[in-house]
Specification:
It is built from 13 helices and 13 strands. With 315 residues, the chain is α/β, with parallel strands linked by helices. The strands form 3 sheets. It has an 8-stranded mixed sheet with strand order 2-3-6-7-8-9-10-11. The chain has one domain: pyruvate-formate lyase- activating enzyme (Alpha-Beta Horseshoe), CATH 3.80.30. Helix content is 36%, strand content 17%. Bound molecules: iron/sulfur cluster. Iron/sulfur cluster (SF4) binds next to helix 1.
Length: 315
């Protein structure tokens, strides 16, 4: 893989398209993805963006944006004003087009530096989306962030299978991601497991039972309706649907997602979201996911009141 260190002009990007309903901005600490040749890279929709790949093979390059934190600090005030005026709140999705915790993050620390900048100048809401258990190394920092903004940690676990016949290995083992989810949740951080894209599940009852004890909510995201194209046509150009059908006939159709959602809902009532609505923090009924812990309210944060840390609400 070719790794380079680059500077970026503006790291805060105003969202468009389907991401608009989830966040006002996206932020990519890297360009390219170190997990591009792993299982999630097979159907990763970012590989179809010529603007990002510039003709390079997905998984073959990683650009570390060394000035991401300083770029954030330079633009945060203007972008916060714009977001509150045009999008109701200043909400950041980190990241939609790369993995924020690749193995190289240990060397470069780009995501960490951005999160530290956010502690000083927080967004209203931060949605941290990762495919890697390495997020657990950031827990102390994330707890500080949860005190100053509405933080949701999204950890993708697509299936309970460590190996899926016909696909490469996971970039981060399923078992390690479950452990990381549990650690995030035990640290009082609002944790969502995103089953994205939904792959054939060997034992759905056990899988969702485990999710119910490892996370606060779950999002089921089938490639149909989840890959940003009509009827999943983008993913249908990859080998993923064929592999899914070979492992579990019917799993490449939406009925499979609905069946899994039924099972999940029995285990986690009110805590199951579907596709983009789920990513936006809403359950199947369109209500916000219920929270075990609540950080400071928006009003308390605006006042800078002394309340620090989450307080239990409900279980
Ligand atoms: S980690 Fe995310 S961005 Fe990277 S290949 Fe997987 S799905 Fe794509």
């Amino acid at each position: 893989m070719q790794i380079s260190v680059v500077d970026i002009g503006k790291v805060l990007t105003r969202t468009s398209g389907y991401l608009q309903t989830v966040a006002s901005h996206s932020l990519q600490p890297y360009r390219g993805c170190a997990l591009g040749h792993s299982l999630c890279g097979v159907s990763c929709y970012v590989q179809h963006s010529r603007h990002i790949t510039r003709g390079r093979t997905w998984g073959d390059f990683l650009e570390a944006r060394q000035n991401a934190a300083s770029s954030y600090l330079r633009h945060v005030q203007a972008e916060r004003r714009w977001a509150r005026r045009h999008r109701n709140e200043f909400a950041i999705f980190l990241s939609s087009a790369t993995e924020p915790f690749p193995p190289q993050e240990r060397r470069f620390g780009i995501t960490r530096s951005v999160l530290e900048a956010m502690v000083e100048h927080p967004p209203d809401r931060l949605i941290l989306q990762t495919h890697s258990h390495q997020i657990e190394g950031a827990i102390p920092l994330l707890k500080r962030l949860a005190d100053v903004c509405d933080l949701r940690c999204h950890l993708s676990i697509e299936t309970d299978r460590e190996r899926v016949a016909g696909l490469p290995r996971h970039g981060s083992p399923v078992e390690r991601r479950f452990q990381a989810a549990r650690r995030l949740r035990d640290a009082g951080l609002f944790t969502v497991i995103t089953v994205s894209p939904l792959l054939p599940i060997a034992d759905p009852e056990s899988f969702f039972r485990r999710i119910a004890t490892s996370a606060d909510a779950v999002v089921l995201d089938h490639f149909i309706g989840g890959d940003g194209s009509k009827h999943g046509s983008r993913t249908r150009r990859t080998r993923l649907p064929g592999v899914m059908e070979a492992v579990q006939p019917g799993s490449s159709e939406l009925d499979y997602r609905d069946l899994m959602a039924e099972i999940a809902e029995r285990r986690m009532p009110e805590r199951v979201g579907i596709s983009i609505d789920g990513f936006a923090g809403r359950n199947i009924r369109g209500n916000p996911f219920p929270r075990r812990f609540r950080g400071r309210t928006k009003a308390e944060r605006a006042e800078g009141s002394g309340k620090i840390g989450g307080r239990p609400i409900g279980d």
